[in-house]
Fold this protein.
Amino acid sequence: MKHLEYAIELRNITKRFGKVVANHNINLGLKKGEILSLLGENGSGKTTLMNMLSGIYYPDEGEIFVDGKLAEIRSPKDAFDLHIGMIHQHFKLVDVLTAAENIILGLNEKTVVDLKGVRKAVREICDRYGFVVEPDKKVYDMSVSEKQTLEIVKVLYRGADILILDEPTAVLTPQETRKLFAVMRNMRADGKSIVIITHKLHEVMEISDRVAVLRKGEYIGDIPTSETNPQQLTDMMVGRAVRLNIDRPQADEVTERLRVEHLTVTDIEGVKKLDDVSFTANAGEILGIAGIAGSGQKELLEAIAGLQQAAPESKITYIEPDGKELLMNGMKPIEIIKKGILLSFVPEDRFGMGLVGGMTITQNVMLRSYRRGKSPLLDQQFPKKLAEKIVNDLEVVTPDINRIPLRRLSGGNVQKVLVGREIEQSPTVLMTAYAVRGLDINTSYTIYNLLTEQKMKGVAVIYVGEDLDVLLELCDRILVLCAGKVSGIVDGRATTKEEVGLMMTHLGKPSEQELRESEQTDAPVHEEVKA
Amino acid sequence: MTQFISLFTTAVSFGTVIMFGAMGEILTEKSGQLNLGVPGIMYLGGIAGLIGAFLYELNNPAANGTVGMLIALGCALAAAALGGLIYAFLTITLRANQNVTGLTLTIFGSGLANFFGGSLNKMAGGVGQISVALTSRVFCKTLTITEPLGAVHKLFFNFGYMTYLAIALAILLSWVLNRTSVGLNLRAVGENPATADAAGINVTKYKYLSTCAGAAISGLGGLYYVMDYINGTWANDGNIEALGWLAVALVIFATWKPLRAVWGAYLFGALCWLYNFIPGLNRSSQEIFKMLPYAVTIIVLITVSLRHKREDQPPQSLGLAYFREER
């Protein structure tokens, strides 16, 4: 009867993509009614492994047992039939359809779509676990957290007893994460088994019963959450001891470098993306920018870089090291360069704005330097040397800097090239947007250290980030945006996650009472959960 | 009044050709397949229908018009669907570039059709000698409910059955796309195939079927032109190709909605012939008027993109190949 303890058992699973082995000989069990964290660095094969349970991929070798029975999962439909539901990291929703239409997609329950029946079923699921979903709302009108809720309702509607959540908290605020965890506990109380993939160790500690660790496609082991700690988990994940602290030295000299006053940016449709934003960025300081995705972070950086037009009352002043002031607004990027303002920008959209995927590392470096040449022919030697330096300094893994197109490198290596190139310009202002998005712990810490190094060199660093824990550890000051307005600027050494989280959703600093309440909403498990 | 009736009649004739083309293309594009081979597919439908009817009437002394009509219809549907199948195989299975494949299909279809059109002319004894009178008569047969020469009759009942078939098809297509599970799944495939796949929809099957069925419907446009509009012969005038491109434009004009394509098709048809009804035009200024449908399409494109309404946008993954294990 040993099998029946497990909802899912994977035995000797191997999956290859061409020559790359994504999963090698993996044995893993998910017990009934438990929350299992699947932990591992980027590229360690977590998502691949879970995709084999949801029918997106099919294993090359090995067996999957569901409820003790050998199962063959060849398509997502097979997975539904086995009551397995996956909530993907990139939501699988059709934007132009409504919530209800997304829920019944592909089910073909009736020839003519019966929206009334769906609405009723959705309401029942929502009441049971404490969600809110509006069945007739279009997905493109939904916030990220609403979309995620919809994804969960979708798999529950399909009768899932085993839920797989792939990095569900990556895009949520701390308050939304709490709500999600409360729902997950309700589902566990209802007898569902849950796998959660996450990078954030404190979440692993908070939500899961057991942790399983993957490293480079291999199964390292599992351990009950109560018997472990973040340091041990990191060591298991990386394979050697890693220091998890970010140094935050104080620079000797902190001077004003960039002064932004009354910055207002309106989009094509006349919606204010930034509304009267004022702050200063200082040399020798990392200024963090926090906010829910789409609160104006992108517009803020682009307005400074000269890529977005600001309203006439806006004023962006650059203060040179010798104290001379220069008005920057209205300048195009090329004018900023010509004025000698050394501005570096690591944009959110790596391949859209930062790099050209079809070109090599050297050519991408050349994009930033070709104007220096005096002759009509391109100087190939200088960018080549610089590219070699970046590859050596940042440990970029690439077969050849002059032949391989950048697109073929992994996300982390691409990001290193971009950050490396921007730092090599010896900037006085360095702006980064989500510089570690999609990177594993090791690479992330490399980038944090680089940014701190720049700060100590007297650069004004602006860091737009989404992980509040990192913002709190890395930044000297944090500017919190809420729907395009400045909710406040807090001291990175003195503030708390709760405070920043509340400022992201409500304008202004929270009162003592609000802070207390936010802590108390921590996961009330539903009493009347039906068995 | 006579002027209006005559403009209306010509508008409906051309409009029907365009409507069939556009209807098929809407079905195809809803699955994310941008088939620019519509003119070629209409050519294939037209010539296949003509060949079928011609051989049937040639070899059967006691040929029956209705049988000829059915043979022509079957041949047109099959040939056009085959054209769609070639396109589907290249773009879905082999993941070839959709734009290039579609344009090639247009060149292929018109070349093939005109080659066989020429052969038929030779068999029939000279240019303009092809005649499938029996079959064509069935295609052209009008309804005789009202008194034969009244204005009402001329406006509404003076057309062959395919004119009404086109409208019925538009209503049916609109219902399928918006009300049924199959339509919902199809829209999901065109918007976001990865999502559709994860929801358990067979993306490849949906793409193949909608591309082939769409091509078959487009092919009917060519058949209507050959059998009804020019009464069962072959003309090397390039009209089918011109109307085929208008069908592609109409899909954009109608913002991928079949019912909007019905009046849009008649509007395009009317704009095509407007120059005949404006006095004092010479040959060169006529051409300016022939450009009107395209000008209208550009205006629609601009207004749609200005209004930025998500429902009026093309299917999101239109023109992109889908491969599940791509990373």
